[in-house]
Amino acid sequence: DTAVSQTPKYLVTQMGNDKSIKCEQNLGHDTMYWYKQDSKKFLKIMFSYNNKELIINETVPNRFSPKSPDKAHLNLHINSLELGDSAVYFCASSPSSGSYNEQFFGPGTRLTVL
Amino acid sequence: AQSVTQLGSHVSVSEGALVLLRCNYSSSVPPYLFWYVQYPNQGLQLLLKYTTGATLVKGINGFEAEFKKSETSFHLTKPSAHMSDAAEYFCAVSVVTGNQFYFGTGTSLTVIP
Lengths: 114, 113
Hints:
Chain A is mainly β. Helices cover 0% and strands 55% of the residues of chain A. In chain A, strands 2, 4, 5, 6, 9, 10 and 11 form a seven-stranded mixed sheet that branches. A four-stranded antiparallel sheet of chain A has the order 1-3-8-7, with no helix packed on it. Chain A is globular, with a radius of gyration of 13 Å. Chain B is mainly β. Helices cover 0% and strands 53% of the residues of chain B. At the A-B interface, strand 5 and strand 10 of A face strand 5, strand 6 and strand 10 of B.
């Protein structure tokens, strides 16, 4: 019955590899997000999709590419991983893109690049 | 542009003592304000939010916060701390004209038995 789920929970990989993180929400929400939380716990938004359409695309390296096959899923693909990509990545969803809406967060994916 | 400042990256309180976590925001338009809690190795969970109406907002687990426009603040309080309150707390702001949250840098709360 998990509302927002992410896979995998942990991801350890070598520099230069390509990896993907998957996110699914079963709340019927229209809007989904990807956040990066660094080692100092700072949360930064990366992308947001509303009904499969990209609406927020912050200054993120082109190596990061989101993909939303349907409004219940938002995946994050990362090419040519670098040491600085090590972080916890959170997926979130909200009923709509309205800024008054609460965002529901997934459990996070801890990415470690060696 | 919007921003959030959380004063005190680490706060320690004794069990049973008052919890006060500070949040100040910057916004040129009316804000929406949120407090989230993050327990170790978990995602963020909403504690409470202010959108419109009553400025004193009650949330889960006995927490409340008051929106003070004149002070641009949204401090989080709880009368009596429990050991289970130990976690990271994040304040966030969004605005009517926008579609994203801006998070503060977080405050780590330690509860001393």
